[in-house]
Design a protein that fits this description.
The complex is a heterodimer of chains A (221) and B (246). By secondary structure, chain A is mainly α. Chain A has one domain. Chain B has one domain. Helix content of chain B is 80%, strand content 0%. In chain B, helix 2 packs antiparallel against helix 7 and helix 4 packs parallel to helix 6. The two termini of chain B are 38 Å apart. About 2% of the residues of chain B have low confidence. Chains A and B meet through helix 8 and helix 9 of A and helix 5 and helix 6 of B.
Chain lengths: 221, 246
């Protein structure tokens, strides 16, 4: 457990010494969501209807943007190999890296979403559901994305390939995440969607570090 | 018992699988053509004209087998990939790599024929129906698998990375399918209901089954042909390949 916390702390420290990288993904999220009203038109009714979808798709893309960084630097300078050789299980260290990635790339999106939701004229309770859905959904995105990041480590054209691999796997999170908000707007209970999102998170939290470790070992061979 | 296990693993070596595949391919081609002729004959000349859909429905004789194959082939691909990952057999990875393009072709064919069928029946090339959407996502999964394999130069690493992706995909396929299905029922966008198909005439079912067998045989024949090419490409430095090509 110490190794886990140490990995989280190390990744957070490294990222906070180069803040611009983290902030880029956050600003990307803000800019993409602001583009939609400009493209579609400023009608509040329409914008309110498509807001959950826009915010979720933007969150998917922003998470995707941060994924190549997850292992690339450690792979280049050999840290990853040392991690694989260390006495602590690699899966635990990988889980720590994924958690750090979520704290840096996912959590800011969760915190920003209510502010951006105000631009789309969402009311307070809807904003709460949106934040909760993103809070459950963004760790799921980081977990699934880590598998793709490990598979494309050191591969030609890795960034675009990563999008091709990971985006189809993100579809369930998108459906239930945006669905929860839409159900709430329509006056239905969002609990079912949120439960499913949490269930997927639980499954991914168990399997994804394991699959990521397997993929990393292949990349390190 | 021990004897039979050894016999099975004999064909896990590219050298012994190559001639075996070569001997099997003509048989699969022959049965593909035979089933294809029988199936097409039933579907064009024997099967009655549908009361509601007219002659246009006949495209389902290609559409349905193609959809089935696209789904089966992903499972088979993942099976071989998983076997390769677990037992470290080289031919398994090559089989997975050989099956992927055929699977993608079947998914594309299924989407394409579906669009051709949808236009006269529903008046739209595409609707965001659960089945169409999940077939499209399956097509994306095939593309991702092929792109990952193509991007990695070392074939052993490509096989293993592809295997993990295929297994992750297999775990995700049911999740994706049900989420798309619930998404569709939540939105209630289209009023078209695909699941309540009118009960099928016996001859139509026969035509479809024969076409499905034809597609199976074709897929196996093409996959074996492709795996032979992959074996030659990867084993080109060995002595036996030089002899085999003489």
């Amino acid at each position: 457990m110490n190794a886990f916390l140490a990995t989280v702390r190390r990744d957070l420290l490294l990222a906070l010494r180069r803040k611009s990288e983290v902030l880029t993904a956050v600003f990307f999220f803000v800019i993409v969501t602001s583009l939609f009203p400009l493209g579609i038109g400023p009608e509040p009714v329409l914008l309110k209807k498509i807001a959950p979808g826009i915010l979720w798709v933007a969150a998917l893309l922003a998470t995707l943007l941060g994924l190549p960084r997850l292992f690339a630097a450690d792979h280049v300078d050999g840290t990853l190999e040392q991690m694989a050789l260390s006495p602590s299980p690699l899966g635990l260290l990988v889980a720590g890296k994924i958690l750090a990635h979520w704290l840096l790339c996912g959590l800011p999106l969760v915190l920003l979403a209510p502010v951006l939701g105000l631009q789309f004229d969402l009311d307070a309770s809807t904003l709460g559901i949106l934040t909760l859905a993103l809070f459950l959904g963004t760790p799921l995105l980081s977990l699934i994305g880590a598998i793709g990041a490990a598979l494309t480590l050191g591969v030609r054209g890795g960034g675009v390939l990563l999008a091709l691999l990971v985006l189809p796997l993100y579809i369930p999170a998108l459906i239930f995440g945006a669905g929860a908000v839409e159900a709430h707007i329509a006056g239905l209970d969002a609990g079912g969607h949120l439960s499913l999102l949490a269930a997927m998170l639980a499954v991914a939290a168990f399997f994804a570090p394991w699959a990521t470790t397997a993929a990393l070992r292949i990349a390190l061979e | 018992m021990r004897q039979s296990i050894i016999q099975w693993f004999r064909f896990a070596s590219p050298q012994s699988f190559y001639p075996l595949a070569g001997r099997m391919i003509p048989w699969f081609w022959a049965s593909a053509i035979a089933f294809g002729i029988a199936g097409l004959w039933i579907s064009f000349f024997v099967a009655p004209t549908d009361a509601q859909q007219g002659e246009g429905y006949r495209i389902i004789f290609v559409h349905v087998p193609a959809s089935w194959m696209s789904m089966f082939l992903y499972l088979i691909m993942a099976f071989w990939a998983g076997l390769g990952l677990a037992l470290n057999t080289r031919v398994s990875g090559m089989m997975a790599q050989a099956i992927a393009p055929t699977g993608a072709l079947m998914a594309l064919l299924s989407l394409w024929t579906g669009a051709l069928w949808g236009k006269p029946m529903w008046g739209a090339w595409w609707v965001w129906d659960a089945r169409l959407t999940s077939e499209l996502i399956l097509f994306f999964l095939y593309l991702g698998f092929m792109a990952l394999q193509a991007a990695i130069d070392d074939p052993r690493r490509a096989d293993k990375a592809g295997a993990i992706l295929a297994l992750v995909g297999v775990v995700n396929i049911p999740i994706i399918y049900f989420s798309v299905k619930w998404w569709n029922t939540l939105h209630q966008g289209s009023t078209i209901n695909l699941t309540k198909a009118p009960s099928m005439a016996q001859t139509m079912l026969w035509g479809m089954l024969l076409m499905a067998l034809c597609f199976w045989m074709y897929s196996i024949a093409v996959a074996l042909t492709r795996v032979r090419a992959i074996i030659l490409e990867r084993e080109r430095h060995t002595e036996w390949v030089k002899h085999a090509l003489e």
